[in-house]
Design brief:
alpha/beta; 13 helices; binds guanosine-5'-triphosphate; cytoplasm; GTP binding
């Protein structure tokens, strides 16, 4: 059985379909309507498509890329009926996602030679950072890993408390030095805690305040330095969490964080509550950082490993019949 079939259960597929409903009805049903009955791809259609993609927060640059490619393919392949055009569009979107190193990765697994595997989670307040950390810890625990959560967002009492609640819910370790403690010290000691207790994974929360780029840069590099002092080669993953429903704001945050630190992976949350699912395409294209996870609901199981084919299939599903 292929990985895709084994891992992508019926339940997950339904979650994804439901999670993408709003994007689907705003973005892709508009596309399908524009496509319907067309036998040539003319200027008018391309203009219409451009407008639809831009309004779904795909971003202008990425939209132009998609349109250009479509034009090229259509000229080359001497097109076309409606279903073929739809397939071409799907192909181009999957290709675009592949070019951005968004490879399908298999299950919640970390390399054996990196123990503890240290994940630094960054992003502004309210994007779903704590929830994403909790969901991640849950998945790793389910796969038999020992996990500790480090409360590195020490600026708000609620952040520390919420993380503790998640650790209790998941049944994993929790490390905190309380509110107003030095986040770099928390990060250092969380890694030490993992080493001492023979744990496999340390997931460290950070505050990610965006007041100035310099401050953010200083804060994150201090945390990174202290993590690498605790364990050579760590952090192994810097995960930036973005709220997909904020559309263009998510682009801006991604830009600020990637300027401030090296981000290795992205999680896009709250796709279920938004029609702006197009940001997935735009962000992965513009920043060339793999999208690793998508949040499709508040439930503990509703953090999915991003699968580009499943994503595109779901977006286009139920259309064109
Ligand atoms: N619908 C939906 N809600 C989500 C998702 N991810 C997180 N949320 C909700 O978003 C809200 C904010 O999530 P938090 O995890 O508290 O966000 P945070 O970034 O840690 O923000 P603070 O803790 O407020 O700093 C919560 O109500 C979550 O349940 C998602 O994928 N879908």
């Amino acid at each position: 059985m292929s990985f895709f079939k084994k891992f992508f259960t019926k339940e997950k597929e339904e979650d994804l379909d439901k999670g993408l409903e709003k994007t689907k009805s705003s973005l892709f049903s508009k596309i399908t309507k524009a496509v319907a009955g067309k036998s040539t791809v003319d200027e008018g259609f391309l203009d219409e498509l451009e407008g639809i993609l831009v309004s779904a927060d795909v971003g202008l640059e990425t939209t132009i890329k998609i349109i250009d490619r479509l034009e090229e393919r259509v000229a080359k392949d001497k097109y076309i009926n409606t279903t073929e055009l739809n397939t071409l569009l799907k192909d181009e979107i999957v290709t675009l996602l592949s070019e951005n190193r968004t490879e399908n990765f298999e299950d919640y697994v970390v390399p054996e030679d990196k123990k503890p595997f240290v994940i630094l989670v960054v992003g502004v307040n309210g994007v779903g950072k704590t929830t994403t950390i909790g969901k991640l810890a849950h998945q790793y625990k389910k796969n038999g890993y020992g996990v500790v959560l480090g409360a590195g967002d020490t600026f708000r009492a609620a952040a520390v408390d919420q993380l503790q609640i998640w650790s209790e819910r998941v049944g994993c370790d929790f490390y905190s030095k309380g509110m107003h403690s030095d986040p770099a010290a928390v990060a250092f000691e969380t890694v030490q805690h993992a080493i001492k207790n023979d744990l496999d994974i340390a997931i460290i929360d950070t505050a990610g305040r965006l007041h100035t780029k310099m401050n953010l840069m200083r804060e994150l590099s201090k945390i990174k330095r202290s993590v690498s002092k605790a364990l050579d080669g760590a952090p192994h993953e810097v995960l930036l969490v973005l709220d997909a429903s904020t559309g263009q704001n998510a682009f801006e945050q991604c830009s600020k964080f990637t300027e401030a630190t090296e981000v290795s992976d992205l999680a896009l949350t709250k796709l279920d509550g938004t029609a702006k699912g197009g940001v997935v395409l735009g962000i992965s294209d513009q920043f060339q950082i793999p999208i690793r996870y998508i949040g499709v609901g508040e439930g503990i199981e509703q953090l999915q490993i991003f699968n580009k084919q499943a994503f595109v299939d779901s977006l286009f599903s139920g259309e064109m019949e």
